[in-house]
């Protein structure tokens, strides 16, 4: 009986193994079909421990994690690496293959209940700028190799001017098959422009902020199936790279995914370099949750300096969405509707962490819908769920501590570092922005000490700054320049070359004046001066740097210049009347050269004696002696040779 039991158990194990092999083979065929047709495959699998994500996130694109079940994407490059893990998986229908309503001439485009074709998208963006030129400006972040454009709309009361206003950025659909944000951000642009001047809340936002909105950050992925449909969309870009894994990462370095930065990535990095965004967000789909920093660390490993503020802002977004959405909305990931990204699942190379860590901007990732490609007729519903949250999040840029930082002497704007003492870590500090000098520091309610600092200026610390949530404290700051510290160098200090270039290496604020004393009775007021000495000797050099606001400083270097100049060649002038030729003799050190002009002249002879051609007019020759041991040369000045 015991032997029979062992046999039955062995038979059951073999049967399960064969079934698993057959099932995996079937799923592998499905996966290969997707990879062949779309270049990427969507699938799920189970893990036994959350720690497995730390390995898998470096191999494939994790999309969602719930109760040890993982949803993910892989492409032709990384799917074989996943197979090496020997994890059973199930291939799922690709979210981008959903058939949705596209705009055509029979439908009203401004109802926002269909998806625009790509050409109609460009038309809509241009229409906003054309219809509302006083508050709208269309810009192109980049033109991709495919010809698709990364379009963005700037909305503010003076779109052509730099003002004391926070810059805010929304971008939608970084993953091409997560299209809810695409249409909702088109509608948000429409909402802000059409309600400006009549809705007090919208008018206040537009008058006091610069809002930048890019509805479609991955047009190649969204229109992978063709410019006339979003059906067939893929997660990745046209080169099959996940754009939300392609940014520099604060933990793992410049290229965490092992890929070169994509054109879209470079474009947004450059765009961020040219702006000073206070806050931003990028939208996704496949879940409904507000995902705040960090993505590359769990909260147990490291929290953002403004973790309390992030929880407050994310809770406001989620609570508003929950209040206006259907039952269960914004509760599929956490019961609160918000989470620290790494606590959900860790990713590297995300734009959220890039903007926070490298650009000193407050950005979070907002998952808008559990369905990635929402049916067109449901898009108006999602607008109702979310538009208030969008506005709440925008308005947070207006709160906290803000002001203008200027030079106490000149009044000019300064780019300065703003540090909340005993609070800021991991690049949470912010900078003031030129040309205005404005800074904006969102922060949770509390009392703070803030230090303002800039190169060349005395730092200033203001204590006891008390901030309440949803309120603004203005602290304008004037930084005093540091007193000048005079210093200088010369291109040479010894030898036989009389021309010396003096360069001020002084630390001096703008507007300072300079006075050189070269020790030979000559002076200069240039910041960097070229001086020629006429005699051999030792010379002490003095530089005085003066600033009417911050003071003066002087440096004297005794016997700084020590020159041994070669003796100038000499020649005796001769004269006679009538056409005649002469032999002229010169004396001097080294080789003597004879020229017909004081500079850029023709060399007419080399040697101590020169027999001239027949002269009929007064003629001047110019001599130099070249001392071959030092390489120096000295002009003798005019040597008159008169013949009549």
Description:
The structure is a single chain. With 644 residues, this protein is of the alpha+beta class. It has five domains: 2-92, Alpha-Beta Plaits (2-Layer Sandwich); 115-398, Zn peptidases (Aminopeptidase), CATH 3.40.630; 401-479, Sandwich (Immunoglobulin-like); 488-563, Immunoglobulin-like; 570-643. 23% of the residues lie in helices and 31% in strands. It has twelve helices and 36 strands. Strands 5-6-8-7-9-12-10-11 form an eight-stranded mixed beta sheet, sandwiched between helices. A hairpin with a 2-residue loop joins strand 2 and strand 3. The protein is elongated and about 115 Å long. It starts with a helix and ends with a strand. The relative contact order is 0.08. Residues 1-21 and 630-644 have low confidence and may be disordered.
């Amino acid at each position: 009986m015991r032997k029979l039991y062992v046999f039955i158990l062995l038979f059951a194990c073999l049967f399960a193994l064969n079934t698993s092999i057959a099932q995996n083979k079937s799923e592998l065929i499905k996966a290969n079909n997707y990879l062949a047709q779309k270049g990427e495959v969507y699938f799920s699998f189970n893990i036994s421990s959350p720690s497995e994500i730390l390995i898998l996130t470096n191999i494939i694109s994790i999309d969602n994690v719930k109760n040890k079940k993982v949803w993910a994407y892989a492409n032709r490059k990384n799917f074989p690496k996943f197979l090496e893990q020997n994890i059973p998986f199930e291939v799922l229908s690709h979210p981008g293959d959903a058939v949705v309503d596209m705009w055509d001439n029979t439908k009203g485009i401004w109802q926002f209940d269909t998806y625009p074709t790509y050409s109609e998208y460009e038309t809509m963006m241009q229409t906003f700028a054309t219809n509302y030129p006083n508050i709208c400006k269309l810009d192109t972040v980049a033109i991709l190799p495919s010809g698709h454009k990364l379009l963005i709309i700037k909305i503010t009361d003076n779109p052509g001017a730099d003002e004391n206003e926070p810059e805010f950025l929304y971008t939608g659909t970084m993953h091409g098959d997560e299209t809810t944000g695409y249409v909702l951000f088109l509608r948000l642009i429409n909402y802000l422009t059409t309600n400006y001047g009549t809705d007090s809340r919208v008018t206040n936002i537009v008058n006091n902020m610069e809002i930048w909105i890019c509805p479609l950050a991955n047009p190649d992925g969204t229109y992978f199936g063709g410019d006339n449909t979003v059906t067939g969309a893929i997660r990745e870009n046209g080169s099959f790279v996940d754009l939300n894994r392609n940014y520099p990462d604060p933990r793992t370095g410049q290229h965490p995914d092992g890929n070169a930065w994509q054109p879209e990535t470079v474009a947004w990095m450059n765009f961020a370099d040219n702006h000073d965004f206070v806050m931003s967000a990028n939208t996704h789909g496949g879940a409904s949750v507000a995902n705040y920093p960090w993505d590359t660390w769990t909260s147990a490993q490291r929290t953002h300096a403004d973790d309390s503020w992030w929880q407050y802002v994310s809770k406001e977004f989620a609570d508003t969405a929950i209040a206006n959405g259907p039952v269960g909305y914004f509760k599929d990931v956490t019961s609160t509707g918000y989470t620290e990204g790494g606590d959900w699942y860790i990713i590297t190379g995300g734009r959220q962490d890039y903007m926070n860590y490298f650009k000193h901007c407050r950005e979070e990732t907002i998952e808008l819908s559990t369905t990635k490609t929402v049916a067109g007729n449901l898009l108006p519903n999602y607008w109702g769920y979310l538009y208030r949250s969008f506005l709440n999040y925008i308005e947070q840029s207006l709160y906290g501590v803000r002001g203008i930082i200027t030079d106490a002497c000149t009044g000019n704007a300064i780019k300065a570092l703003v540090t909340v003492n005993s609070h800021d870590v991991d690049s949470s500090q912010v900078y003031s922005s030129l040309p205005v000098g404005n800074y904006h520091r969102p922060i949770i309610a509390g009392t703070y000490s803030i230090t303002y600092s800039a190169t060349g200026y005395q730092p200033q610390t203001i204590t006891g700054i008390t901030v309440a949530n949803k309120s603004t404290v203005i602290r304008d700051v004037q930084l005093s320049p540091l007193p000048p510290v005079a210093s200088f160098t010369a291109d040479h200090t010894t030898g036989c070359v009389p021309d010396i270039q003096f360069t001020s290496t002084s630390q001096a604020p703008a507007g300072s004046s300079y006075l050189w004393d070269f020790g030979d009775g000559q002076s200069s007021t240039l910041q960097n001066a070229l001086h020629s000495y006429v005699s051999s000797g030792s010379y002490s050099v003095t530089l005085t740097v003066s600033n009417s606001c911050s003071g003066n400083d002087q440096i004297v270097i005794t016997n700084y210049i020590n020159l041994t100049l070669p003796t100038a060649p000499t020649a005796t002038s001769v004269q006679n009347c009538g056409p005649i030729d002469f032999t002229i003799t010169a004396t001097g050190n080294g080789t003597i050269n004879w020229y017909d002009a004081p500079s850029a002249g023709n060399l007419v002879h080399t040697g101590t004696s020169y027999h001239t051609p027949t002269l009929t007019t007064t003629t001047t020759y110019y001599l130099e002696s070249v001392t071959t041991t030092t390489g120096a040369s000295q002009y003798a000045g005019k040597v008159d040779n008169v013949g009549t």
